[in-house]
Amino acid sequence: MTIEVETGPMFSGKTTELIRLVKRLEWGHKEQNTDFLVFNHYNDKRYGENVLGTHDGPKVPAIALKNSHEIMEILTEKVGEEFHIKPEFLNLTALFIDEAQFFDDDLPRVIDFLDRLYLRTRNDQLSIYIAGLDKDFRGEPYGCMPRIEAYAHKVNKFKGICSVCGEDSDYTQRLVNGDVPSFDDPVDVVGAQELYQSRCRSHHEIKNSPQP
After folding, report:
1. Which of 4, 6, 99, 149 is catalytic?
2. Alpha helices in the chain (DSSP H)
3. Is 99 among the residues known to form the active site?
4. How wide is the angle at C-alpha 99 spanned by C-alphas 97 and 103, nearest 5°?
5. Which among 211, 209, 191 is positioned nearest to 55, based on CA atoms?
6. What's the pTM value of the predicted model, to 2 decimals?
C-alpha cells in the first residue's frame, strides 16, 4: 500500500485512524523525524500547536504546514533540474497528512511525485496516509480531496452518527449560533462541537443552495 485516504464527515474517526497508525509505528520502535513524519495544516490549532489531535483526546506531535510545497522543502533537495530525497529521509517508511482539505491544489501532485520518487530512488514504496473531509459544510466536494482520492490506492470512507436521528451520517452540518448557514458563507472555518455536527442526508440543512 502506498497512498491511503481516510475521509468522511467530521466526528467520524478519520484522525483517530491516523493516530492509531502512528501509534502502531511507535510500538514497533519507529521514531518521528527518522522513520516517519506527521503533518497537519497550520489552520488547525483546535487541540494545540504542532499536534495531531482528536475530539476525544488522543494527540501526537505534528509539523504544522501552510502549503504543500513545504513538504517538498522538508523531504527533498534540488540538484540541477532534478529533485532528490535528502539523505536523512531516505529510510522514511511513512508519511501522515491530516486536514488535507485545507491544503492548496498542488498537494495531490506532491503526494504522487513523492510516491514515485521514493519508489525510483530506493526501489521501495513510501506509505502515505492522508485524512480530510470529503465534503464541506454545504455538502460540496472539499478542496483538493477529490483529486487526492483519484491518486490514492485505497480510500476508506468513514461515517459519523447523525446528531438528529442517530443514523449513519455523511455530512458535516455547520451551525452559527444555532442557525443554519448560507451556501455563500466562507468554506474554511475551523471549529469543533461549538460549530459543527455530523448529520445524515435527510437532516443536513443549508440556506440558498443553488438549483441545478
Report:
1. 99
2. 14-27, 69-75, 107-122, 145-151
3. yes
4. 85
5. 191
6. 0.91
